Amino acid sequence: MHSPLASSTGSFKRSRDVSDPSFALSPPLKKLTSDLWPGSEVSDKSTSITNAFSLDKITPAATPTKWTPQEWSSEKDYNSNCVSKSPSLDIPFSDLRLCPSVSSSNLPASLHSKSTTNGPHMIFRIPEIVEQILRCLESTTSVPRETPRPRRKPQSFSHALLMCHGDEKVAKKAWQEAARINFSNGESVGPSLYNCLLVNQLWHKVALSIITENLHFTDSRKMRKLVASPSNVKERFSKASTFVLHKLNKLTQTELEAIAPVVASERLRWVELYICPKLSPPPFIFHHSKNIEKLILPGNQRVDDKFLMNIAPYLSKLKILDLRACEKVTDGGILSISTSCPALEMCNLGRHRNGKAITSVSLVALARNTNVDTIGAAGCHVTDAGIWELAMQRGSHIKRLSLNDCNLLTNNSLPTLIALKYFPQLSVLEIRNVKHITNLRSIVAFIREKRSQGIPVLIEGGEQTELLMREAEHRMQQEYSTSVLASFSRWINEDDED
Amino acid sequence: MDTNIPPLPHPKSTFTIKIGLIGDAQVGKTSLMVKYVENVFDEEYTQTLGVNCLSKKITLGSADIMFYIMDLGGQREFINMLPLASEGAKAIIFLFDLTRPETLKSIKEWHRQATGFNEQAVPLLVGTKYDLFVNMDPELQSQISRQSMRYAQAMDAPLIFCSTSHSINVQKIFKIIIAKLYNLTMRASEIKQIGDPLLIYKYLGGTRRSASASSDPSNASN
């Protein structure tokens, strides 16, 4: 009989593994496999060999498992192999099963009924395919992150009204929404991939390697568990490409240091400690991971200039740096970052306290040395001169600027620079509570020009500024109407060309 | 400081103005349209099947005007296409043949039907083939002129006699449309002398404008 013969091949062994759901916990039993490959079937089918073969010509080529040469020794062998194997690839996907529900060994089964009950479908035994399937699952689990907002919340009801162009109903809704504190967490779907760990050894292996590619934690207990896992399991971890801690305030620095060796690798691209004020990312990670592109540390009280100077030399590939509310960071730290990170594209230094620590020096350093197109300097002490220098050095590349609460700025910088077309690519500009920017004509004209080209522009000005913008827009519209009517008037009173 | 900032030019708008041409067969609707848009006059008659349309762009300093002219075939069989020519039109030009008084009589029905689809459009009453009309019996000329003035009064429509072949008052028609739509003052003097190519527009066609609110250029499409 051929079936027992197949047990000598790797492919067949794999099929045995999968058919036994308890395998992940216990080694496979070396029992005879006649219940899976009933001996009777081959002899039964020998009469209908030609028929079955023509039904499924593709089987030999499409079967990824390798047959040992001796199995091909006779034509009879080949054919009977096809007969016994082909059904498992032939059944429709809706009938796919991971585990055999009832053994059909005793039934004089037809080709079809045998195939549906005869162990898991072929595709669940092929590591490459299992990996593809699990990756689809993985793509549904999301990294915890702060909910992005399309627009900032209105500051008052009248502001909401202004934003909605006087539509009271919409404004009321927006304002109510803004007044309510939103506790929504970025996490959406449960980690469904974890269940795949328990299916069998193959699945465990594949799932573990996928799970450990992206390490993100919103719960410090889960992270502790990972740190505590035995070293032989740790060896099977993939090298992580993302490492995200989301609001872990119970985790200690020592525990974080302990995970550093697991995390650090050349594959690491994204390191994030989102509002973990007491944790300082271990320099070990940076010293052993030279490909980090994204470093997100908002609300960190331990990150300071010394830390930045320590890690900056290892961040040559850094593109995104988020240091919002890292109040200990000053111009000095940013200076070392900007000289070491030429690829930096986004840098956010916004803060509510200690704004004086970041001045135009940072802005100019970033403009001169990096590839920056997005700068957040909300609440920092940047000046008109700093903005001018930024415009001169990088104006044509700047896409987003956040300068909320930068009270040193006046009409002499942004409005003038925009009128002079120094920021042609600007698409988001935040200038909330910048008291001295009052001349908004050029900004309004800029918005109009962009809109007429179909390019959306967002200017967040806060209530006062938006009111001024609306006034400027109205005035400009009137002026334009007047000039259009004047040119129409001129035309109708011209001499006819008749 | 403000004065040092060079103002960004306002993005130029295009004001698209749809105009419907309506009237009996062979009064010269297509000829007028082709003459205005392409400055060509063809003696040969070509029947319009259904609807013709041409557009002409007038480029002005701070905005452009795009006349989008729809010309409806005069045969009765095309009456079901009247909505195509009249709906959404800012102005509807009713044309009659000055040499065939019965075409003026038809205007009453054309006007009734077109107004049913579009009450807001500025109506204009245009008599065509003035070059032939001027050689007709003076008594007949006087009759037709007076009758058309009565029609213009009743329709509250500016009255224009034109000649497409001799280029008389063709441009004026479209300038009057703009003047009426945007409530602008046009200084061209009126022609009221019977026998001359009449041009009466100052106190006609002004009442509908408030309803259409078209004097606000912000309605423009870019």
UniProtKB/TrEMBL annotation, chain A:
Biased composition (Polar residues): 1-12
Residue ranges of domain F-box/LRR-repeat protein 15-like leucin rich repeat in the record: 290-439
Protein name in UniProt: LADA_0D05336g1_1
PANTHER family with a match to the protein in the record: PARTNER OF PAIRED, ISOFORM B-RELATED
Region (Disordered): 1-45
Superkingdom in the source lineage: Eukaryota
InterPro entries: FBXL15_LRR, Leu-rich_rpt_Cys-con_subtyp, LRR_dom_sf
A Pfam family per the record: DUF7885
GO cellular component, one term: cellular bud
Single GO BP term: mitotic spindle orientation checkpoint signaling
Gene Ontology molecular function, alphabetical: small GTPase binding
TrEMBL record, chain B:
The keyword Nucleotide-binding is annotated on this UniProt entry: yes
Gene Ontology CC entries for this record: spindle pole body
Any Pfam family hit: Ras
Sequence intervals crossing the membrane: none
Keywords of the record: Nucleotide-binding
SUPFAM superfamilies per UniProt: P-loop containing nucleoside triphosphate hydrolases (SSF52540)
InterPro entries: P-loop_NTPase (IPR027417), Small_GTP-bd (IPR005225), Small_GTPase (IPR001806), Small_GTPase_Tem1/Spg1 (IPR017231)
GO terms assigned for molecular function: GTP binding; GTPase activity
Protein name, entry field: LADA_0H14598g1_1
Species this protein is from: Lachancea dasiensis
